[in-house]
Amino acid sequence: MMKYEAVTIKDIAKALGISTSTVSRALRDSYEISPETKALVLECAEKLNYKPNPAALSLKERRTRSIGVIVCEIANNFFSQTIDGIESIAYDKGYNIIITQSHESFDREVAILNFLASRSVDGLLVSVSTETNDISHFKELHDRGLPIVFFDRVVDEINTHKVTLDNFKGTYEATEHLIQNGCKRIAAIVNSEFLLITHERLAGYKEALANNGMEVDNSLIKHCFYGGIEAQEVEEAVNQLLTLRPRPDAILCTSDKLTTGCMSALSRRRIKIPDEIALIGFTNSNVSELMQTPLSVIKQPANEMGRQAAELLLQIVESKRPIKDFEKRVLTPEIIIRESSVKI
C-alpha cells in the first residue's frame, strides 16, 4: 500500500510550471501576483485537492486552531453529550477538537496532558479523573499560559472558567422526593472522595435528611472509587447494602454508571423496584425511560455544559489581552420522576 502524501505547493508549482514562491504568494492573495495567475493557481489547487498544512499555518499564526478535550470515558452518556456540545461550538468557530479519555487514571491523564501540550493545542477542556488528587500537572501548564477550562468535575485551586452543575440541588430534591414517598432508610452509592462533585452531591443528600428530621447513617453511604466503570465495585456496594438490617428501602446513585449498574444488580437479585427498594440517580441515558421499570433520574444539561465550556475557552484563546476575571457557571439539573422511585 502506498504511503499517503498530502498535496503541497510544490505539486501546484510543478503542474503549472511556475515557482513555489509564486504559488505561495498567489494563495496568500498577494498584490504582487496578477489576478490571472491567482485564478490559475486557485483552480489548480482545487483540482489537486490541496489543503494548507495546519502545522505550517500554526507556525505563522502561533495557533493550531485545535483544542484538547479530556474526559474520563467517552462511552458515558453524559460525556458523549457534552462532547456534542463542545464540538458544535468549536466547529462553528473553525476549530478541531482532539478527544481523549483518562479511564479514571491519574497517570493516563498526565500522559494525555503532555501529549496535547506537545501538539500545541490552543486550549484544553477538562473533566478531571477520579484518581486526580494532585493537580500540579494542570497548574504548571496553566501558569505557563495554556488556556484551560474545567467542566463538570472541576478543581478549586486553579483560577479559570468553570462550568458545573448545581449538584447539591440535584441530590437534595431527589432525596426529598424519596422521603415524601415514604422512604425511611435511604442509601447513597457515590463516587470517589477525591471528586468535588461527590462532596456536593453527598451534601445535598445529607441536608435533605437533616431537614426532614432523619439522621445520617454512614453505613448507608457506599463509595465506588471508579464510579461504576468497574462493574464489580457497584455489585459489592449493593451486596453490602443488602446485608444491612434493616435493609435500605431506597437508593440514590450519584453518577450514570452507578445508577444503571445499581439497577442491574438489584434486578439480578430479583429485588422488586420500587416495591422493595426505590431507586433514583444521575443518568443522561436515553434508555432509562424504556427499562422494565422506567427509571427516575437527575438529568444534567450535558450538551449545554459542553457548549458553555467551549465558548468560555475560545473567549480566552481569542482574547487580545490576558483575561483576569473568571466565572463559575452553575447549571440546573432536571429531576424526572418515573416508576422506579414511587412506592405503590
Automatic annotation (TrEMBL):
Matches recorded under Gene3D superfamilies? 3.40.50.2300, lambda repressor-like DNA-binding domains
Instruction: For this UniProt record, give its keywords in alphabetical order, as a comma-separated list.
Output: DNA-binding, Transcription, Transcription regulation
Say if the entry is tagged with keyword Acyltransferase: no
Q: InterPro entries, from UniProt?
A: HTH_LacI, Lambda_DNA-bd_dom_sf, Peripla_BP/Lac1_sug-bd_dom, Peripla_BP_I
Q: Does the keyword Transport apply?
A: no
Q: Which CDD domains match?
A: HTH_LacI (cd01392), PBP1_LacI_sugar_binding-like (cd06267)
Q: Name one Pfam family in it.
A: Peripla_BP_1
Give the Gene Ontology MF terms in alphabetical order: DNA binding
Q: Which residues form the HTH lacI-type domain?
A: 7-61
Q: What is this protein called?
A: LacI family DNA-binding transcriptional regulator
